[in-house]
Design a protein that fits this description.
- The protein has 174 residues and is of the alpha+beta class.
- The protein has a six-stranded antiparallel β-sheet with strand order 3-2-1-6-5-4, with helices on both faces.
- A hairpin with a 5-residue loop joins strand 2 and strand 3.
- Helix 2 runs parallel beside helix 5.
- The structure holds methionine sulfoxide (SME).
- Methionine sulfoxide binds next to helix 4 and strand 6.
């Protein structure tokens, strides 16, 4: 008999069976524990990308771009190799960074200027990494499914991004 309560927290079955916001709360707790006590920016961003990629169902890419001057530069990620530099204002990532707001794209083919790194991507969620007023970069999630991300995903991933920012802050500013 299938018992979702015995599935790993990142199991797709469990995501289908339980309230998404509760699962995001569990994931946030796990992410905070994973990053706790480690000041290295690369290590924390790499572990955060891996945790998110392997926890959320139906993703083909999850990772970070960090702001260097007026460009976003590829950081740690999981998925296929991606474009390295994205000018502010370009693509979904550059738009989220420039406008400092999360951008949910239900169909990337319908987003003018979308940058196709992996042709499998159909929908996308990009969250700016904001330390107060300071933009550090973005968290980018891609899905092979159309309309993969709803407002629960946006809110849940904004909370994950806030945890990452707290742990990156020290090393990014140093
Ligand atoms: N699709 C993004 C580019 C980054 S990749 O998806 C990893 C964009 O339009 O900004």
């Amino acid at each position: 008999m299938h018992d979702a309560t015995h599935a790993a927290p990142w199991s797709s079955d469990l995501w289908a069976a339980k309230d998404k916001s509760a699962l995001y709360a569990d994931l946030a707790e796990e992410l905070a524990a994973l990053l706790a006590g480690e000041p290295d920016r690369t290590a924390n961003a790499a572990n955060a990308a891996a945790a998110i990629y392997h926890s959320l169902p139906a993703l083909n890419w999850a990772g970070f771009y960090f702001l260097h001057g007026d460009e976003l530069v590829l950081g740690p990620f999981q998925g296929k190799p991606a474009c390295v530099r994205i000018p502010l204002g370009k693509g979904v990532c550059g738009t989220a960074a420039l406008e400092r707001r999360s951008v949910v794209v239900a169909d990337v083919a319908a987003f003018p200027g979308h940058i196709a790194c992996d042709s499998a991507s159909r929908s996308e969620l990009v969250i700016p990494l904001l330390d107060g007023d300071r933009l550090l970069g973005v968290l980018d999630l891609d899905s092979p499914d159309l309309n993969r991300f709803d407002s629960d995903d946006r809110v849940g991933c904004e909370a994950l991004a806030a945890i990452v920012v707290r742990h990156l802050r020290r090393s990014v500013l140093s």
